Amino acid sequence: MTNKYVIKGLVQGIGYRPFVARIAEELKLDGWVRNTGGIVTVMASGSEEALQQFFQVLSNQVPTGGFVSAIDVDELSSPTEFAPGFYILESDFDEASNLPMLPADIATCDSCKEELFESRNRRFLHPFISCTICGPRYSILKNLPYDRDTITMEDFEMCPQCRAEYTGKKDRRRHAQTVACKDCGPKLEFIRIKDKNTDNVTTCGKVDNSVDIYNENDLGPELSRACEILKDGGILAIKDIGGYHLACNPFAERSVSALRILKHREAKAFAVMFEKLEQIRGYCQVNQQEAELLESPARPIVLVRRKKVGGDSLDAVCLNSPDIGAMLPCNPVQIILTRICGPLVMTSGNASGDVLEIDNDRMRLWLEGRVASGDIPEEIQIAMLGHNRAILRPSDDSVMKVVKGRQQFIRRGRGHVPSPLTTDIMDEIFAAGGDLKSSFCYVQNGYAYVSQYLGDMETVSCQNFYEKERTAMKDIFGFNPKYIAADLHPGYFSRNMAKELSEDLNLPISCYQHHKSHVAAVIAEHRLSEPVLGFAFDGTGYGEDGNIWGSEAFIWRGTSNMERVAHLKPLKLIGGDEGAKNCDTILSGFLHSIGLEAFDINPNKELIYAAIDNNINTVTSTSMGRLFDAVSAMLDICHYNSYEGQAPVELENIAARNNGEAYALSLGEDGDVAELFAGIAEAMKNQIPREKIAKGFIQAVGKYIQAIALKSGITTIVLSGGTFLNRILLEYTIDLLESEGFTVYISNQLPSGDGSICLGQAFLAYMEK
Prior knowledge:
It contains 24 helices and 29 strands. The protein is an alpha/beta fold. The two termini are 46 Å apart.
């Protein structure tokens, strides 16, 4: 008898066809398997017993990284004859409208890593080693089905040995689309951008666990020179799977300082790549869940607690953060470099705020321009380690942490995109997201495909990146949305783009309030149906009354409507970009609104008061983020946000130093902040350490949430928005709520910040239909 199987799920790019072929051959079935659009189709002929066993295996087993969502089986009424044996056929197009699933870029597997360091293996130190279950995927995909000629590896003709592996029935690289070797695969290119201009001694400082075990004949000239640059304290631009990284020795303060100048990133911590988990544990406290994230195929950056803050050899990298953004290598080049050079700063290859660079020529020109500026110290060398395999879509490293046993994204990118989220949204919707830390999503057949982190839409380059990725995802997956959802803010690029798209496609569009979308995103992700009390705390969002919201509490009862039940007391602040960045100006606005001008030491306070009193460039705000800014300035922690959220981050870092009781502060249940600031002023007068005051403020916010929850009569709580990236606040609030019997949800599969609101928009659009 002969059966036809249509297999749906994540079954492409993970070695699924060789897996099917091996099972069929073991059961002595005749037939074939092929990629068909975004699914896999199998025709198998054999005894009834063998076909039943075949189906059982397909239903219960899948290669690492994939999953099967459904298997449709048809028994063919007329007998079908096959040539003896079981074959992997060339791909063809989809026979029906089946939503495809593709794996994200996958870290180098253990088998390939073992081969990488086997001196007798023909792929010894091969910088592009991969197999059926590891290597680049989404970043090199042109279109479906996933095959050699639909990815950028089509530029490289397989040599006879690689071709034999590709077609060999017993080889683990059977039909591995990225198969290549040193003879036929991509090639590295080393370009020296800047030499030393002095005879100063080396600036490399400590090189932790570095080894000199490979000579230039082993490594090749490109990797050898790259290692020399890093060991000598230079900066190296490295082209990886998702784009360029900038790397340097994390123990060399001059090198780290030069990297900050190069990137215009003076005040933000860098991530550090370690060779292995045991090395991370030398500097950090790593629990089991954090270890699992670090070693997962996505290889994200994971924020883990430092063992020592202050006086540590990584202070130049981490600044005053209690965390290290730690990561493990995800590709062969990184594996080789960290083994030879030890830990490395590994940060995105771009100027802060711009799109991750993927093009060799543009990276070279940018580095040359930065050198020509004269900003880079003379003793710092700069070089590039590029390659000639094209990257089609930039994808920053994912950034994650674990809080109270809950996985939390700060940024979702390489290793996780385009893997979809399962939802109850059954319509076909495009949701445009927001303009800060932007991402969009397509939703179809109960799956939400959320784009990678796209940056802030204030730059033309990020806007172009957004449009390019939106079109690419639509074309690759064949999305055909029937509705469009966007943010309520009339000035957002994302909203205006969505409006133009709706007009071009003649599709209905609905716009949803920013903070309602935050709460809705968590509801959609966890597929909640019971009444929810949702908190959305962040820096800014356009409110339904035309004011700036940011401390909102909503009750949701299973419809598209949400009732706004609490928020901070509205007050006037100076508007515009400068008004959101200058914490001293923000503090003046708070103190003036509550009559505590006596505590305002801002030399420009009278000018600010006059502007506020006369409604000159002012906004009315309920923002929790601005409250954190004001308290940070009052405690002399941070007076200006050189990057988004800097003042709240530095306030949290100071609060983390307090290991004892926090100074008791309170926030009015009606959202009045007068008592809070009066309490802070009294504490400062009494010379209470600012870390105790900072922690007391954070706890006051948690108690404010608890008080609202206790009054609501609702037991399911959602915490959303960028403010809940504050570990102290989130842990304290969860403890308070759970001690009272509440069930607490946060976003686990998407960022707490604005990178999740596209899913919330899609959910609200679905509820409204």
